[in-house]
Structure prediction request, 447 residues.
Amino acid sequence: MAQIIFTQQLARFLPVPTLETEAATLRAALDEAFAANPRLGAYVLDEQGRLRANVVVFIDGKRSELDVALRHDSKIYVLQALSGG
Amino acid sequence: MADRAFIATRKGLFELAYRNGEWQLDDRKSFYGDPVSMVLHDARDGATYACLNLGHFGAKMHRRDAGSEEWKEIAVPAYPPKPEASTDKIDWTLKQIWSLEAGGPDQPGVLWAGTLPGGLFRSNDRGESWQLVESLWDVPERTQWFGGGYDVPGIHSICVDPRDSKSVLVGVSCGGAWVTNDGGAHWQLRTKGMAARYMPPDMQDVGAVQDPHRIVRCAADPDVLWCQHHNGIWQSRNNAETWEEVTAPLSSFGFAVAVHPRDGKTAWFAPAVADQQRVPVEAALAVNRTADGGASFATLRGGLPQEHCYDLVYRHGLAVADDGKTLLMASTTGGAWLSTNGGDHWQTISTTLPPVYAVRFN
Prediction:
């Protein structure tokens, strides 16, 4: 199962446990996470469904966009970009 | 009488309490470390609202109900998807909540939020949900709006008419002053008399490019509005039908204005040198007060730093309490001063706060 690990900077605002997913894409994996934790979506995506400008996602060591396919053992890190200061 | 005041800063929400005859910073701090772009105390139900602008994770809103110590995260305004055929260059996403006001006393639960990039939103349920006021978002003149203070346009002033809650004026940087008399179904641009001197000569009277930095309404004399504009001070005595320019001593440039709640002829301003030099004149902080509708001003300095002072008071950095004589002023370099006698003398609350975005009384 792929794992989604959220920055602990988010834990200041809401619970963000590490999740396991069988989703095929990052977007689907995030949708699962947001379904279980409805407030989380607005912290990671803007209202148009795009990654926030100062949030970055790394999958298996590579910075990734929402439409990226996941492997069954992918490690997904949702982090804050230092550019957002 | 106000017994609490709020200071929204880049690093949290601080509170002042009036106890034993003195105003002092309270131990209560909220959102410590996070930018708080706006705060509102709603006198109708005693709730307090805080708008956050989390750098990475977006704009958020919280409510603290009367008598509670706990904040609850509530909804934020959200823009609809931009139609594919739209030629609007603005990104339809919430950047910041820049202004927040309660609806009228006959509208319990109604809130108005002014945002960057320029949308006005209304809530009917104390911020549990929000609706874009599409009638204003869709005015053709919005294509002429542009950023002033930020890269995108924004609504910083919302003045509900206490005689009629359906009548609301909003101020836009840069987009002029707009009035609705039917609760937001229709809007009229009301800037006659204003001058945008940063525009080419033949465009200086165009309404939708005016940059009112801040507009406030006198509660007891609601036809009276005061506007600190990018190019000076204007007042209206006829609910924004026309505006007259007023000249203040030191400088007519600034961002903030406060009007006496019962006397429309009395208003306060925090002058800075000019748009290209946003510091107090001669590095000495002063407040200009008129008590005769702008015919004359007193320049007040008592208790304010008079040398090596570079504090700028931004749009929402000056507030007057319901008594008309208690004032709170705070700066983008963390100075905060309070007066209990209409600005004649100021006590220093702090000179080391984070940058201050907004001050309010309860």
Summary: The two ends of chain B are 9 Å apart (CA to CA). The longest helix of chain B spans residues 134-137.
